[in-house]
Amino acid sequence: MTKFTSVEALHSHREALLATKKDENKKTVSVCAGTGCKAVGADLVVEAFKAEFAKNGLENAVHLKATGCLGLCEKGTLVMMPADQTVYHSITPKKVPTIVEQALVQDGRADDFLFTDPETGAKQPTMNDIPFYASQKRLLLDKNTLIDPICLDDYISVGGYKGLAKAIEIGPDKVIDEMKKATLRGRGGGGFPAGRKWETCRNAPSDKRYVICNADEGDPGAFMDASLLEGQPHSVIEGMIIGAYTIGSDEGYVYVRHEYPLAVERLTKALEQVRASGLLGENILGTGFNFDIKINKGGGAFVCGESTALMASIEGRVGEPRAKHIHTVVAGLNDKPTNLNNVETWATVPLIVERGADWFTQMGTKGSPGTKIFSLVGKVNNTGLVEAEMGATLRQIIFDMGGGIRGGRPFKAVQTGGPSGGCLPADKLDVPVDFDTLWNEGSMMGSGGMVAMDDQTCMVDVARYFLDFLKFESCGKCTTCREGIRRLHQLVSDVAEGRATEETLDLIETLAETVEKGSLCALGTSAVNPVLSTLKYFREEYLAHVRDKKCPAGVCKELITYHINENCTGCLICKRRCPEQCIAGENKKIHVIDTSKCTKCGICKDVCKFDAVEIY
Amino acid sequence: MTVKFTINGVPVEAEQGESVIEVARRYGFEIPSLCHHHAVTPYGACRVCLVEITKGGRKKMTTCCNYEVQEGIEVITDNEDIHRNRATVLELLLAEAPKADAIVKLAAEYGVTHSRYALPEGSEPTEERDGCILCGLCVRVCEEVVEVSALSFNARGDKRNVGGPYMDTPQNCIACGACAWACPTNCIGFEEKDGMRILKKWNRELPLEYTEAGQPLAPRFQLRHFIEKANLPKDFYKKGGPR
Amino acid sequence: MDLTFVDAILTKHNRDTRSLLAIMQDIQEEVRYLPKEAVQHLSKELSIPLSRIYAMATFYNSFHLEPRGKYTCTVCMGTACHVAGAPRLVEQLERDLKIDSGKTTPDLMFSIEEVNCVGACALAPLLIVNGEYNSNMTSDAVSRKIKKLKKEEGGA
To answer: Domains in chain B, please, with CATH?
Structure first.
């Protein structure tokens, strides 16, 4: 590997690369190798391409790339042709020969595997034709489609490490100015402007400073950071190097969830590459600046996403948050000034430094410039990762990018911000998504998790789910958080299980106030958002549980019963599969569930091919 | 260095590094708390010492045992908001330790005489907790004062508990009883019976040593630990101990 | 138990107490759980009170203090998996394996575990068996999977 001893050496290497790579994209096949596609067999697709290339003598003519997440996980494995951005979906090894034949040998398109408009049936061959992609603003995610995550040359050829070169050229003062002007707000959910954080950290008197990348992406239903680390680890690393150079730090940490093995693997490889090429380590690019990065794996504790808990964990202790009356930028890791940003924030830094604050602030809203990546999951058609300009409405994200609700069912709510966020109803769909607006509506942007819900989702159950999550994820130090969340969970369970009265709802609100005001860290203070927001926007649903002892969505087990309707053909399958043996019936006669024995396990509904099992 | 600020509008002075609760108490302002003791590092677990602090124009409710004094802050130690939230904290704690005098008494001061959060008796496994409010005084005293570290907080969230490793008798416990002395809810159970020192919650029983005059002293591990830590003559306690 | 592998791990981390979490992770990587002997050995070698290591081992959810089954059946409990019915998968595993979630069958064949979110939300609900992702699961599919594994292990 080339070792760059100066900024000029890096630039000339890039130019040389561009000259040789110029034609490469014309014959490149990108196979998505993100966690989602890998889980449905992306590796086998890669192998199939290799075999097929060999068969057709294309090994040297076509370039095969296993890239990071291409976004539309729902339709994996995704295959893309970077030359004209043709996308093929749901690719299995069996389909590969056709693609190779039609797209590469004959230089056309494999029409059968293109996206189609569900209404008109018209083909949507390229990213520009597919609404999922066309309605996004893919500032960061676009790189995922272009580069092999662990190929440094790939990253350099799309402009990688230009930001670092620029930072060195203009110096720390100007970098801080640009960062402040760009008002890049912390993408982890806090929304604090990174530039101001950097400045405070830089000015804090100390002989030692740290930078940390928070990759402990704990919100369930969120995988933005995983995808960035898997797809373009170098963006994150470059951001951190720029940060360290600007702040005056020689030691950095990436604290990453151990549940993300692929991210850890790729990040590790990427770090080895930059160390070998003089972009990390001693005397970076011949400037005399030293900086290195270490990876720390998390231990499976949501609370470690909180900055002080994360630092305690790096120090080899239990991840208990501490009071932040003195900020971590002044006294953080090992009591030294520490600048912590999350993965997406770090990944955005090189773009801002390279292209300038004016370019960045053209996008998004005044208070929240730029773009934001969301993981769009739940009951939408296009589950996956989307990147939207700040200020895009929930409707644009869920309906344009997400393709609306699955099975044509009605949209009921969207949960944003994970366990710290809230649920917003249909009449908030036109709310622009940015840090401040969502906060004012009783939810929050958080790190970018977005879960769409339909009429078969019970909001009481959703509140209970998050409380259940948090009561176990609380570190347990504060009474208000430990006991408060536990008791909130108990009260919401009372609602879900039909034991509650209207006074229960009042008590929930009373207790929520103290959990919010009395807890030390953000886990506790924001833990009440899911329950308070559902109580605010879906009070009728709570009241149905309380007054009528009914769960209108058909979810809360204690309040529902299973029945078999006249669709039943008497096929005996459910009868045979019922673990409680409480279904009676004969061949070709409508079966009957003995509701007194039924445990509502749902197997009968799962196995019924005739939609004959109903819940009410 | 002296730090100047106000408590309930009264100008006060403190040394840098002091906590607000210590200063407030010195000036005669009453702030309830259950997990604070001046001998150990402030922890902020019980959340009873909630106050309002205004700093740089921003008002915030916070615990004051772990709030270091800062120049110019304005502390309010009681008002309706504070009172209501402390009452809720105490109602939560009362559900955990309904028989602990300190909790019952303090809760009553805030108008809480029964906890709406407590489930009917027998419907939740309260035995493990047994009146413990997880304030952590035992853990901190054992680590910081006695310097034995026999105890720790284990697990997390609503499963959090306090005890020795592997939910077992801590083998390095010297049965000095400092934990029981520090415990605000008296849930540890300190006893001397039939020549044994017993710490019930930790299931620790050690035989007592006696002076040459036949007076019961303390367990041997404890004596040895104290002799080592304080650099005392080996027969210091045998001869009757401190006079 | 032969603890030389623990010593090797300690050396790798320069016996730095700040690396305690990583050291414990490496031990678990090796034997799939944290044996008590290894924890006691750590305490002695690093002069860290046993209580502190035990606190770490029980605070961080990824540690296992008991041996785990040959097949670890992990149900993802992320939000997307939850609304898609993940709790019913756990119940089905509990019924089929006759153990509670978080436990291991007496024959050390199966463990049931829950994980917060593995970021494969498009595949919800998800059952992971020893790292192999089974997507869009139902109670019925869980039962079939377990039956198949039991059959592969010869009977039962």
So the answer is: 2-78 (3.10.20.740), 83-118 (no CATH), 137-230 (no CATH)
